[in-house]
Amino acid sequence: MKRLEGKSAVVTGGASGIGKATARLFVEEGAKVTIADVNEKHLADAVAELGQFSKDVQAVRGDVRSMKDGERIVAAAVERFGSLDVLFCNAGITSMSSIESLTEEEWDAVIDTNLKGQFTLVKAAVPQMKSQGGGVIITMGSEMGIVAVPESPAYNASKGGVIMFTRSIALDLIRYNIRVNSLCPGVTQTPLLEREVETSPDPERTRREQAEWAPIRRIADPSEIARGALFLASDESSFAVGSTLVLDGGYTAK
Q1: Are residues 52 and 161 in the same domain?
Q2: Domain carrying residue 159
Q3: What is the average pLDDT score of the chain?
Q4: Residue 23 domain flag
Q5: 93 lies in a domain?
Q6: In sequence order, what DSSP letters do the residues of the chain get, joined into one string?
Q7: In this predicted structure, which of 49-53, 166-170, 232-236 has the lowest mean pLDDT?
Q8: Are residues 203 and 135 in the same domain?
Q9: Residue range 191-225, pLDDT digits in tens
Q10: Comparing C-alpha atoms, which of 85, 93, 239 is closest to residue 154?
């Protein structure tokens, strides 16, 4: 039997990168998937791609920074598929600005997307999961929520906040059979990473540095991180509560 057979899953930021790889894996494992993203074109492309494998895929355009959009994304999944069994709060953005160059607008965008964007979906999902007797919530952390790096205070703060948010709500929600855990990837080959490389002063140097970032000496493929999300979403992780699954090629072990 497939590991997510018949389950309804929401993946935010699901139109590209880790989100799309996870949505595809969830579909292959039998899930009915709602992909949420702010980019309409990428959403359409992702649904067309995943539609080759399953008819139980839908797209919802939504901004995770908005409570109303969070509620709308959850409602769309429940209306189409009858339940919400897995929520993967994957949507996020990066920031590589020192405290001196960091603007208020960039700080707000990073914190609102990476941290508040977890809250809006979880807040909307919990009543549904309680009413159906349980569920699984996966938050998107990062190795940089565990180990600080220079010139990234907003991103470090947002991902560190996600990890503590996860632990807190995991303790609150396990009484309702809602398991909450955090997935913390390292450097992964995504469109977001590629944009960061291309806009850097020396793209070739940045690309080499990223490849040498972790002891494994390569960048992760999104499918490798997706397999971690599948583990947390499935019954294989049934005793994991408030955990942090780190897939970083050894970076935080240094």
Answers
A1: yes
A2: 8-185+222-246
A3: 95
A4: yes
A5: yes
A6: --TTTT-EEEEETTTSHHHHHHHHHHHHTT-EEEEEES-HHHHHHHHHHHTTT-S-EEEEE--TT-HHHHHHHHHHHHHHHS---EEEE---------TTT--HHHHHHHHIIIIIHHHHHHHHHHHHHHHHT-EEEEEE--GGGTS--TT-HHHHHHHHHHHHHHHHHHHHHGGGTEEEEEEEE-SB--HHHHHHHHTSSSHHHHHHHHHTSSTT-SPBPHHHHHHHHHHHHSGGGTT-SS-EEEESTTGGG-
A7: 49-53
A8: no
A9: 776 777 677 777 788 788 778 889 999 999 999 99
A10: 93
Asked, for residue 106, whether it belongs to a domain, the answer is yes
Residues 208 and 145 in one domain: no
pTM: predicted TM-score of the whole model, two decimal places: 0.95
Asked whether the predicted pLDDT for residue 245 surpasses 80, the reply is yes
253 found inside a domain: no
196 and 100 inside one domain: no
Q: What's the rounded Cα separation, in Å, for the pair 241 and 232?
A: 10
Whether residues 169 and 210 fall in one domain: no
pLDDT in tens, 4-22: 999 999 999 999 999 999 9
C-alpha closest to that of 61 among 87, 42, 78, 85:
42
Which tokens hold the place of 181? 């855990």
Q: Residues with catalytic annotation?
A: 155
Question: In total, how many domains does the chain have?
Answer: 2
Residue (of 104, 96, 99, 170) closest to 135 by Cα position: 170
pLDDT of the residue at 100? 95
- Does 209 lie in the same domain as 108? no
